[in-house]
Amino acid sequence: MYTQALNTKETVTAAEDPAREARFQARIDAEDRIEPNDWMPEAYRRTLVRQISQHAHSEIIGMQPEGNWITRAPSLRRKAALLAKVQDEGGHGLYLYAAAETLGVSREEVTDQLLSGRAKYSSIFNYPTLTWADIGTIGWLVDGAAIMNQIPLCRCSYGPYARAMIRICREESFHQRQGYEIMVTLANGTPEQKEMAQDALNRWWWPSLMMFGPPDTASQHSDKSMQWKIKRFSNDELRQKFIDATVPQARHIGLTMPDPDMRFNEATGHWEHGPIDWEEFKRVIAGGGPCNRQRLTHRNKVHAEGAWVREAALAFAEKERARTQQKAA
Amino acid sequence: MSVTTTSIAVDETPLVLHLLRRADDALILGHRLSEWTGNAPTLEEDLALANIALDLIGQSRALFDYAGSLCGLDEDQLAYRRDARQYRNLLITEQLNGDFACTIARQFLYSAFIDPYWREAMSSSDATIAAIAAKAEKETAYHLRHASEWLIRLGDGTGESHRRAQAGLEELWPFTGEFFEVDAPDQSLIDAGTIPDPAELHDGWSSRINTILARATLTRPKDSWMQTGGRTGRHSEHLGHILAELQYLQRSHPGAKW
Ligand SMILES: [Fe+2]
Ligand SMILES: [Fe+2]
Known about the structure:
The complex is a heterodimer of chains A (329) and B (258).
Chain A: H1 18-29, H2 42-67, H3 76-101, H4 107-115, H5 132-153, H6 159-187, H7 191-210, H8 222-227, H9 235-252, E1 263-265, E2 270-272, H10 278-285, H11 292-305, H12 307-328
Antiparallel strand pairs in A: 1-2
Helix pairs in contact in A: 2-3, 3-6, 5-6, 5-7, 5-9
Chain B: H1 14-34, H2 43-71, H3 75-80, H4 91-94, H5 100-121, H6 127-155, H7 159-172, H8 184-191, H9 202-215, H10 238-252
The complex binds fe (ii) ion (2 copies).
């Protein structure tokens, strides 16, 4: 998911205070919300900081592939909708950085981690948007996958994250519908448009499945997150929900999943998929995707180019403060 | 093989022409601002510039819609299938974004003109124009406030931001004369009370500029030769590139729906 790189093992520290931890766990078990001023185990805090900041970074980096089509959107209605969507994603980044701040990490700190390449973001945004159909596909699949993961996060044990998620989910589902509607239009359009839609689906399908992270057999991180109710479903469970929701949508508009093994299992009522290329997933997470360098270089360039503006705003605020003080004196 | 064009012809009555002028201003400036998305100096500014771009694109749609209803075309035909020489926008709107100071200077100079323009147009004898103006004015009042605040911050910020803001103003000043041009078709609309007379907005614009520049510790550029041509389709080199991007899908898939 947007936080798929969390599947690395958290260093296990000795219980800080077993009695306190037990009380903390009891609150979680009772579906109590943990708030910023409540005591929490250090590992809980660290896990959340990583998850929320990775999620925020994904929103910010995700502005690039979609922003790539704003100036080329094929109608004024689509142009306005895409611009508003990319703006929403920036807004999601803002709420999430604010949620991370409640855990004692500043936006500057986590931004530095992103810019230096120490922090991860979702692997999906390291793929390029090559045609207009990619914009439809991203809304449909990427926002669709994000919703699968984020709806349970609306019940996350940490209050500020859960509340940010409620607002974000509402917008993501709007993005998903909008993306699917682009696909419907293309699939019902000229042969060239339909081919464009199929090509985009071919390229984005497998990376979308990888958004849910490694298979449960290989995921090291979920147990504690499940126990803390940061996470409520396993990677494979969420992936399956996504596939079951999406395959009928593709069939409905005459598009084919690029998976020869895809079949409906009458007994289980689920769509079964062929093998996912986990080597590709690992490679892209580790920096070897088509756009990893481009995305990070761009983010760094924008940050560096904006430095003088941020400095000017600070200098001006400082002068204003001095002027107000002088007036008061 | 016969060669056909995807371009359309528009019957430019004075009212259609004026609506296209205002619509093209809003679309092209909105397009330019949308180029900042994901590229602004702060995340907050990413959102703010996208907001302004969205307002402007929305204004252009309302204006195209009205113009189209008078000449039998729709908003996308008007936006995507006129050539650069049929575009009627002010030259200032198509200029390169430059740095953030340049973009802010452009937004300030334009908003200081267009906001009072829309306020006057709210009492147009044409009910549709009056309604479009009422909505647009609320938006441009915010655009003007946003740009003014930034210009003051940059002008009175650091040495570097001051220098960049002054450079942006100097760069764009020669494009401000075009705001106040009136030709025969526009004059007929002014006489009929359909649109405001821009000449009457000049003094207010000028004093607004002076007030904000004073607070920003910036110097008002000297008036000298002013650029002209946008209103009759004689553009700078930049517009062709904007339209090449903006129109390419519509042009390369004639007749397709998106
Ligand atoms: Fe988002
Ligand atoms: Fe989204």
